[in-house]
């Protein structure tokens, strides 16, 4: 994630030395969350706030000591092969977790960062190192670190994550992708997990294909500014799914501080939060249906390499999810469509209908055989 730190605000945000200053900083952080209005969160939260959903954050680790994440984080494994040290861990991951499941703090939780799905749970899986960690280059070449993302995806799925957020990309040597990661993505999709990833931050340069965003089935997310214009750094690709706020985004940083940053990382985290809302309200939807709901609910017509299907809208995504569930209900093995609580208890009547249909089919087939035999005798 690019960190474009505006000096006046950063000086205030990072200087948390006394309770009074901390309160002022937390209040400022909430005021700066311009994305909440853009994504129509108040309307979406009338239906759900993400309760019951686990979102795996595959990142640099999440610091559960931050007051905005109190009680929201489950610690998973460290798959990097590098022990946390020197304060060089958890900054980026904590920021992404706060944008997904931040709960704020203070009276009425009115201070600090509130996430898109503030009642969801974060499963932290450390799969990469911070950008400024000198051991990052070493991690790329170590055997233990080569498949950390693939192993992280599988771990998340096996431990109940319904949504997997991956604000990762090119900077960690993933311009080409890998067979292990692609197989892990398919493993997750087959087991009902929704995967979201950042599109990448070199759109104003090489604009390279970026993984894991480019894997089939992953919701690839680009970034827009306050005017809903695509950010110059946001990668533009045909596989782009949607765009979300990604400039001047306030997020948690470390155990008690905040930071302002630019990047598709933040945008992806917000879309992961919207996926969690959809999952919470409509748990029977497939990953493909969740993706369609998010794309169909975006505020733009058509598709382009710049915007994907458009700027995400949490309220519209939930409305589309409801429509998709009613139009394309999940089907049980017995062939009976249902949505919501599950199939009704009509086993006896259904069996009678099936038997009658089979008898009718058998009679029809028998008549065809007789007719065919007569034609042959002629």
Task: Describe the overall structure.
The chain is α/β, with parallel strands linked by helices and 378 residues long. The chain folds into 2 domains: 7-331, Rossmann fold, CATH 3.40.50.200; 345-378. The chain has helices at residues 7-14, 19-31, 35-38, 41-45, 91-101, 136-141, 143-146, 148-158, 179-190, 264-281, 287-296, 314-327, 347-377, and strands spanning 54-59, 73-78, 103-105, 111-114, 121-126, 163-166, 194-198, 219-224, 242-245, 249-253, 257-261, 330-331, 337-338. Strands 2-5-1-6-7-8-9 form a 7-stranded parallel β-sheet, with helices on both faces. A two-stranded antiparallel ribbon has the order 3-4. A two-stranded antiparallel sheet has the order 10-11. The longest helix has 31 residues, at 347-377. The model is unreliable at 1-12 and 331-378 (pLDDT under 50).
Q: Largest sheet, if any?
A: 7 strands, parallel
CATH homologous superfamily (4th level) name of the largest domain: Peptidase S8/S53 domain
End-to-end gap: 80 Å
Overall radius of gyration: 24 Å
Strand content range: 15-25%
- What is the CATH class of the largest domain? Alpha Beta
Helical residue percent band: 25-40%
Any low-confidence stretches, pLDDT <50, length ≥5? 1-12, 331-378
What count of structural domains?
A: 2
Q: Count of helices?
A: 13
CATH fold group of the largest domain: Rossmann fold
Shape, principal axes of CA atoms: globular
Order of helices and strands: HHHHEEHEEEHHHEHEEEEEHHHEEH
Strand order of the largest sheet: 2-5-1-6-7-8-9
Tell me how many strands there are.
Answer: 13
Instruction: Please give the oligomerization state of what you see.
Output: single chain
Give the name of the CATH architecture of the largest domain: 3-Layer(aba) Sandwich
